[in-house]
Amino acid sequence: MPEYKLNINGQVRKVDVHQDMPLLWVLRDRLGLVGAKYGCGIGLCGACTVHVDDVATKSCMVTIADLADADIKTIEGLANGTILHPVQKAWIEKDVAQCGYCQTGQIMSAAALLEDNPNPSDDDIDLAMEGNYCRCGTYGRIREAIHIAATAITASKISSDKNPVEYWEPLEGQV
């Protein structure tokens, strides 16, 4: 089997796997990064969403051979150490998750949306999130959390001359 070098969450990782192995299984079974979930295996549910070169990508649909020189970010790499990403913080604030199974994919899709569109409308959010299914039906809270995160990110950028990470503060009790 060939060896592949991957840039995952800012670290170069090497894996010996078959070229047709989906990224999802490399992450979960070979690298122990289990945040991306197996939902459907055919790219419909979004539970396996990660970022590939800053684009929300369903990791069950892309093979390891397709990822030469790609930057991959998983939910494990979204936070800045122990400091949550604004989307993660908004998810907690709005108590979005019910069962939680789909939430990593939802969060990764939302973070990619806000990277491209820092002030999305409800229609923009619905379009960006349409590939992520939540059987618990938390779509209203998901939309609210994305708006909260967008406001926080915009506020952080406005004040970036003073302190570029002003919003990125730990949640109470975290260090």
Folded structure, characterized:
The chain is an alpha+beta fold. The protein folds into 2 domains: 3-77, Beta-grasp domain (Ubiquitin-like (UB roll), Roll), CATH 3.10.20; 86-161, DNA polymerase, domain 1. Helix content is 33%, strand content 13%. It contains 5 helices and 5 strands; from the N terminus they run ββαβββαααα. It has helices at 23-30, 86-93, 103-116, 122-129, 139-158; strands at residues 3-8, 11-16, 49-52, 55-58, 71-73. A 5-stranded mixed beta sheet has the order 2-1-5-3-4, with helices on both faces. A hairpin with a 2-residue loop joins strand 3 (49-52) and strand 4. The relative contact order is 0.15. The mean pLDDT is 91.
Q: Gist?
A:
With 175 residues, the chain is α+β, with helices and mostly antiparallel strands. The protein has helices at residues 23-30, 86-93, 103-116, 122-129, 139-158; strands at 3-8, 11-16, 49-52, 55-58, 71-73. The protein folds into two domains: 3-77, Beta-grasp domain (Ubiquitin-like (UB roll), Roll); 86-161, DNA polymerase, domain 1.
